[in-house]
Structure formats: structure tokens, C-alpha cells
């Protein structure tokens, strides 16, 4: 009797265990079923990097804005990586603009006055140091590095030669599109030049270099999306203008025919 009771209790425990394992397996199956649609939906949704790569960057840019500006200290200044240095550079440019434009200082006068002040202070300090038992000022030996000067001159000469080549192609009458862009650019520049003098124009360009890139880097996705739509509309209107007007304008001889 006792043995039957033990066997009955053991079989009952086995049934309870099977019931528990069955419930756990069914719960895990349900969880897997719930997770599968979620994983498929997450895989189908595009990642932020995919969305960013789908946007056509301004002027066909592939590199980050910091790399476009060289990726060095000048890029850090323009993009305000160090706010103290960027603010100091912009403040110095503003001070120079105030001296030349508002106070009507001349460049030669400013250079001479600065040299007089620096030389006078150094001379007085050097002579007064012997009376107060202090060391005279250590004047550094400044020298322009020849390698950097040659690199700057070489880069500048390449840009000038490229500009001359573009102007030559425009004057030859082979590329009507480039001709229109150059004429429009020069016309806008002439209007801006009539509003202010050269110093103010350089200062405005300097301020734009310190404001536009950092704002563009902050809102580049919105700007690139808007620029893509604007360029699509401009190309559409240019195609209509080309078909109705530019295609009827006689053009100069091509380079191949000219060489033949």
C-alpha cells in the first residue's frame, strides 16, 4: 500500500514537472514570435548613417566639414573648436577693421606707430634693467621658414593659373554655362564692391568664414536637403533656358578643331 502511494506521488510529480516545462517552452516560443517581427522591423528601418548617406551633400562633398577646411588649426578656428582662440581672432580682425574703416587709420601709419611703440618699450626696458638689477628682455630671433613660404607661393601660383585658364576658356566662347556663371559672379561682386571698400569687403568675408561654416556644420542635413531641391529646380530651369536660348547662340571653335 505504501509502495503504491509512493509510485502514485512520483508519477504526480513527473506530471507537474512536465506541465511546468511545457509552459516555459510555450512562453519562450511566444517571446520568440514576438521578438521576430520586432527584429524584422528594426532591420527594415534605415539607420541614421544610411539616411545621411542618402542625402546629396552640398557641392558633391564627401568629406566632413572639418576635413574640407584642411583638418588642422585653421579648421579648428573657423569651426570654433576652441572658442577662446576663435573669438580672439575674430576680435582682432574687428579691431583692425575699426582702425582702418571707422578711425580712418592708414596701413603704413599703423605699422610705423606699432614699430615705434614696440622699439621704444624694448629700448627703455633693456636700459632700465641694469638699474633695477633685472635681466633684459629676451628678444626672439624671428625668421620666416623658407619651406612654408615656398609652399604658400606655389599654392597661390596654382590658384592664379587656374583662374587665368578659366577666364581664357570663358573668353574663347566654348562654354556658355561657365561664361554665364562668371559674368553673374563678377556682376554681384561689382555691386558689393560699390557698397563698401576693399577693407570692409575683406572683413565681411572674414566674418562669413567664421560664421557660415560652423552654422552649416550644425544644420548640414537640413541645408543639404534644401540645397538638393534648389539645385534640381535650377537645373530644370537651366535646361529650359538652354533649349530656348543658349542652343541658338553660335559658339567658338572647339579645341580639337582648333588643333587640327
Automatic annotation (TrEMBL):
Keywords: Endoplasmic reticulum, Membrane, Transmembrane, Transmembrane helix
Residues covered by the Reticulon domain: 74-259
Listed Pfam families: Reticulon
Superkingdom of origin organism: Eukaryota
Subcellular location: Endoplasmic reticulum membrane
Membrane topology: Multi-pass membrane protein
Listed InterPro entries: Reticulon, Reticulon-like
Annotated Basic and acidic residues bias: 1-38
Biased amino acid composition, Low complexity: 39-49
GO cellular component: endoplasmic reticulum membrane
GO biological process assignments: response to bacterium
Transmembrane segments annotated in the record for this chain: 85-103, 110-132, 179-209
The protein, known as: Reticulon-like protein
Natural source organism: Aquilegia coerulea (Rocky mountain columbine)
